[in-house]
């Protein structure tokens, strides 16, 4: 998805108008952004597979961290950024190489801390969930 709002695009992408390096590494492509929800499609690349042939849990956690923090970032004022304070991740089933859909929903947006829930889906099956706490920091 191409995000058309210049202010949101600037907050998400920075001055270079491209996705953040971690989002690119994870194969992320923005699908939708609403007031309190974001979807990003990721790619479980062959390089992310563990010896069992599944996407390694740390890579799934990175996807969840990316989608939750990116949602918080979309709500920030100029001169602010967010830092993840905690990410409680639960793995529900193995993920295979291929497309994964990350979804984030803003639960609470405070002045200094945000609570966000995230989910990773693969072929209509929930693979992992996360509860994130992100701190808002002035640059």
Structure, described:
With 139 residues, the chain is of the alpha+beta class. Helices cover 22% and strands 44% of the residues. It contains 3 helices and 6 strands; from the N terminus they run ααββαββββ.
Beta content comes to 35-45%
Uncertain segments are none
Strand order of the biggest β-sheet: 1-2-4-5-6-3
Q: Pairing-aware structural class of the strands and helices?
A: alpha+beta
How would a crystallographer describe the biggest sheet?
Answer: 6 strands, antiparallel
Bulk shape: globular
SS element count, helices? 3
N-to-C series of helices and strands: HHEEHEEEE
Q: Using only CA atoms, what is the Rg?
A: 14 Å
Percent of residues in helices: 10-25%
- The total count of strands amounts to 6
Mean pLDDT: 91
| End-to-end separation | 28 Å
Write the layout of secondary structure elements.
Elements: H1 6-13, H2 21-25, E1 29-33, E2 37-44, H3 57-73, E3 80-91, E4 98-109, E5 113-122, E6 125-138
Antiparallel strand pairs: 1-2, 2-4, 3-6, 4-5, 5-6
Quick summary of this structure?
By secondary structure, the protein is an alpha+beta fold. It is built from 3 helices and 6 strands.
Keywords:
139 residues, alpha+beta, 6 strands
